[in-house]
Amino acid sequence: MKKLFWTFICFALFLVSCTERQAKYRIGISQCSEDIWRDKQNYELRMGTYFHNNVELKFAAAHDNDERQVQQIDSLVNEGIDLLIVAPNQVQTISPAIDRTFDKGIPVIVSERKTNSRKYTAFIGADNYEMGRVMGEYIISCLHGRGTVLEIKGLEGSSPAIERHNGFIDALKNAPQIKLVASLQGDWTENTGYETTRQWLANHQDEHVDLVFGANDRTAMGARKALGNGVRYCGIDGLQGEGGGIQLVRDSLLEASYIYPTHGDQLIDLAVKILEGQPYEKETMMMSALVTRDNAKVLLMQNEELMRQTHRLDQIHQKADSYLRELNTQYVINWLAAGVIVLLLVVIVLSYLQHLRKLAIQRERVTNTIWNMEPITSVEEQQTHEDVDKEEETNASPVEGTFISHFREVVETRLGDSDLSVDDLASAMNLSRVQLYRKVKAMTGSSPVELLRTARLNRAYQILLTTDKSVSEVAYAVGFTAPSYFTKCFKEAYGMVPGDVRK
Ligand code: FRU
Fold first, then answer.
1. Residues lining ligand 1, judged by CB closer than 6 Å?
2. Which of 233, 237, 301, 495 is a plausible cystine mate for 220, CB 3.0–4.6 Å?
3. For residue 377, how many C-alpha atoms fall within 13 Å in the half-sphere facing its CB?
């Protein structure tokens, strides 16, 4: 029974494990920073997984710290990711960790910031040089080709900072009347944008600035805090939503911005293509566009609509997800319930069979005890016998015991009488024929006639063994009226004819 129980538990556990979703692709995401641009991209990355339900994401954010990003990449790899998506903080410092990952055979997608080697599987980003250049041209036209500009660059050593700066400088080459008063070092944060501008201002009180180009919108807004309203500001990122570049342009806090696409969902699609061995583009350049007061309002409206749809999609997904979870649980419960029912049925049938067997053996034992038949010999049966014996010891009432011995005595004394009938036996036991039948049958499982025959055959067996009497003489001696009938019964009981006993 114990075995059966454990088999059932294993079966249940197996079922539960089967209902777990299939094996997942584990994708590590190493983000250099944490800011509204990264938040949007991370959100899209998660959304991207909705279309591939075999993908699991592990996020790490380095907060603009090279050392931390290297550690995070190494530990993502050690945790056992199948693919790495990485936005390297600075080119030189992060590249070795990316190379190590690639050398271990883990595919790497470099996202928007570049590395200094070719050891990556795919790159997806936008043209930062072009953004800087277009923004330069826009600024020139804004100032009608004449004026003073302050540049605040992005983080030193990060590829978009270098490329945006180069594009911007190249554009200014075509406008000799535009004076670049300074190119200050920023680090993508609003705070540094503010601090560097403030310090510069403290040392250049007489310098007039018409326009500030911040390498991103946050940097430009930092400069705005330091220089105030009389100056115009341009940045890059052009995020939609509260506090994003598009709104800042619409509200005239920025003169212009440039959409720097996040497209996290596209990153996931690319990752899955690589993991599934499908064809993919090694270098993907995403579209981007200038945001000015002319298009900011329209862009915002479109973005709001897009966000509404995205939000709905997200809700639908969550609903579908919880429905699937419920379904899964229901599935497990159904199987467990079916298992319990089957187990119960098996237990009931087995117990019933065991009970029947015990009953049969008990009866046989009682009969054998009374009439001295051959003992049962197999080990298993012996065991069951012992169990039954124990039960008998505790269950058999003394009254029953006395009755059986009395009945045996009566039968044995009178079995030589071929006219002996059940009525005779009943009256010897002071019972009616029916009462005797019921009692004997209930206690031994055999009828009085059967027991009488067994006793006769048993006695005949002993006589055959111990005397020289002929088979007919023996038959008559134990109350049979016809030797042929005696032989037939004897053969049925012992599997041999009476004559064989002596052999
Ligand atoms: C976000 C961000 C953006 C910028 C980009 C450059 O972390 O700082 O503001 O455009 O990274 O990689």
1. 33, 35, 37-38, 112-113, 160, 188, 216, 236-237, 260
2. 233
3. 2
